[in-house]
Amino acid sequence: MSIGADPRSAAGLYERKWERYAVNRQGMLMTVGFDLGAPKMRSCQLIDISQGGASFSVTTTIGLPLHYYLSIVGVTSRIGCAEVYRTDSRIGVQFIKEIDEELLHTIVRADYFTGGAAKPKVPERRYMVGVEKGGVGSRIT
Question: How many other β-carbons are positioned within 10 Å of the β-carbon of residue 70?
């Protein structure tokens, strides 16, 4: 490294290894305990995904281990995950084995076709609600 060079100014420092895709898909986290008994399932909402990891939200992180399987509704594959970060109800994971591009695009395309990636529908704003003909302030002729 040259003198005076800031190691944080490297061009690749903030670049991601994989391209992330914003999705809005329902998923399930499957955990297996040390006793190898019946797996426990917990629902999650997928926020974004890449070939190497994903982030999602859960209702509670209580009792959730650091390694589990992610199943996405409508996709038959289970993806092994290792947790990278956990903040309140949002979790970021790295996949134990990178998923292939075909599976990634299946997940993203299915989200697009089901309308999951679309902006939430804004309720129609109704003007003058409750004002009818002959109401207060109107002239009856």
Answer: 22
